Structures
1.
Amino acid sequence: MNGRIIRASAPGKLIVLGEHSVVFGKPALALAIDRRFRCDICPGSGILLNGAGISPRLHPHIDTILRRRNISDLRIETESRIPSGSGLGSSAALSAALIGAVRLMRGEACGEEALALEAFETEYEVQGRASPIDTSTSVHGGGVAVNCPEGLGTPIWHISKGGNSWTVSDIPVPEMTFVVGYTGIKAATGPLVQKVRKYKESNRFASDIIDEIGEVTRDGMRAVSNDDKDLLGELMTRDHKLLSILGVSCRELNKLVDASLEYSYGAKLTGSGGGGSMIASLTSRRRSAKP
Ligand code: PMV
């Protein structure tokens, strides 16, 4: 790369509770992870990504970010330690990092709230629907809760779209160990979000499941605040069952969750599902009986 290079990076995340139902304005809890997406940008002629052109189909987030800003000349080089389509927030981290770099290059405001809003709008456009949980966690880091019970977190910003609204809060999280299991199956978020929307529109019980995930997530946030790992684990496993009923789990995810229950407080898929990853909250001892 020639010219002045701007570098920005952002972390991936894991959703502890509340994926999918959060798209409908329910609560969710996520943690940033120590794997980041990094991008370097500098002015150039045309759009070059790692030395090649981009396509809206293969690079929908980059294409959307540049199109929304009318950018047609830019060189981008990326490096990621977050596998794409793994449910660990690679596209949110990509969006946060690229938007941050572009804002820096253009001398625009780089405050967290402005970044989180633009990254959310990008995901919303690409997926057809989205919540701010991934993008806000990637921008803010640490523990992030959306629509949490009063007093559990410190509100940092508020986002509304499509009839839903989300208050995003920073939430303190005690020391916990999560193991991530990857199915090896890449799954794009957009189609799974649309699948849940269609299911909700065609099945009158789907809204009850979404409400129940909301309740489980609120209880889980209280369990996190009380450092009650047993209860949090139990709620994670219950959330996995509810997500399975919504149709976003798969055989491989169920196998990994089942296999980990003996060694964990609880386990569930994380992110959009359909493949991707699961998480288990680790105990230091083997559990005697499966729940
Ligand atoms: O799989 P990921 O990392 O894109 O997570 C998606 C989380 C959803 O709740 C399914 C969608 C959203 O926008 O919140």
Note: The chain is about 40% helix and 25% strand.
2.
Amino acid sequence: MTVALYPGSFDPATNGHLDTAVRAARLFDEVVIAVFDRPMKNLLFSTAERVAFLQQAIQGLPRIRVETYATLTVHYAQEIGASVIVRGLRDVSDFQHEFQMAQINQTIDPDIDVVVFMANRKFTFLSSSAVREIAALGGDVSGFVPHHVAQALYRKFQTRL
Ligand code: ADP
């Protein structure tokens, strides 16, 4: 049985993230979407909120679950018995970052492979930061994130469309 860990900040989860998780679940027996509890980033949503958004989004999807973690990603993968780390790739700047991270992870534990999914062409332009910015400026994010995430963003920024 192959468990795949899909780690990230997911601040908030977008349709691009979910597309990757669903595609990973077609390849692996179990996909654990893991919300990193303390990224060195300014977060808009709390860990509990980011987890809840994902949990609602994956309801009814088989073989995908959501967890949270606060350690090195490779250590968390070891802890849950994951032999694969899933990441998404949108462009060359993602590649540079992911390539470096993968080399570091490989150095820490050569038995864990990083598997990168090319972003769905419909979501290549999509990032959590763009979604946050659009919502903050009163724009419509309904095509980019699940409905409940869009509602939470509108509540956060007190916009009404
Ligand atoms: P991190 O802070 O770890 O980069 P993110 O939540 O921003 O966390 O992203 C998690 C993973 O999902 C990363 O591998 C990122 O490249 C990927 N990703 C982000 N947006 C998309 C998208 N629109 N399509 C496919 N993959 C994506």
Note: The chain has one domain: 3-121.
